[in-house]
Amino acid sequence: MNLEIDLAARRVLVIGAERLSRRVVARYRAAGADVERLQDQAAATQAELDAADLVVLVEGAPADGQAPPRGPDGGGSLQDQCRQAGVLLTREAAAVEAGHVTLIGGGPGALGLLTLDAAEALREADIVLYDRLAPTEALAELAPAAELIDVGKLPGHHRVPQSGINDLLVHHARAGRHVVRLKGGDPFVFGRGSEELAACIQAGVPCRVVPGVSSAISVPAAAGIPVTHRGVSHLFTVVSGHAPLTDEEHLHLAGLGGTVVVLMGVSTLPQLVAGLGRAGMRADMPVAVIERGYSASQRTTAGTLSTIVTAAGAARCQSPAVLVIGEVVRVGLDLQGEAAHLARLTESLAS
Q1: What average pLDDT does the segment 54-76 reach?
Q2: Which one of 131, 186, 281, 285 is the catalytic residue?
Q3: What is the mean pLDDT of residues 282-308?
Q4: DSSP state of 43
């Protein structure tokens, strides 16, 4: 059973040691509650329980076979005392004492594509270092007990250099905090997550990786373009477009066939299509540029290898965008056309 309680201006009594209950206190305060914390159950008086709307026990349930925790003044269990006061009693896990890091892939920016493990890690975070392409709109609600630090990189400008991000991860973890590094997409797909993991390992800081939904697959899907399709493409290659490719790399891509997905490739699009053309790729190969995937302003600009640079320029395509090169683009556009036709037909029949 899932119960939701409006905690605005409600009095919440949190029972637990300060360090162990720090996240619980922060979460309830973020929800608008009037929070009072007591070190242990013995410090609670019946009057305090009577005045509370909710009592939160952070210390955990007693071990099997032991007597239940005693209430105030040694009389009855805390549960009995709360029942007598007519106040709800709930338990929450204590914060882990040892500092550690969780590297999270936040997906392409849509809140719904954040994994359950990622949401749980954010909920238990003390510090969140986040990027601009991560799902940040609801970050204060997702991580109510955390200090939020923007370390995102903009094209040509790094607010915090990678070495500085590594240092922050280690510094805060060594101070006993749970540090979440929230990145867009997947942390191990052009996300430098492996460098951050290496920094933690070198410093002796425990680090866990929570994979994310990569924009290489999800953004084409949002535009209705599959990266593989039976009888059309049985493989796809993901390429970083941050810097122009070499002639040898163009040759390999053109000869490999299948689908080519390029991340961060808008600025190098002219060099890419020219290089693939020189390497023998057909001039009429379908190409799509999908901007701002999963946002309200998502847009797809389509063309061919010979026309996409002009089309993208006319449309003023900008980063963030995902490029898809291959026959699957035609498949996706045909599917979208059929879906639009079916929708119009259904609407006309309904009217």
Answers
A1: 57
A2: 131
A3: 96
A4: G
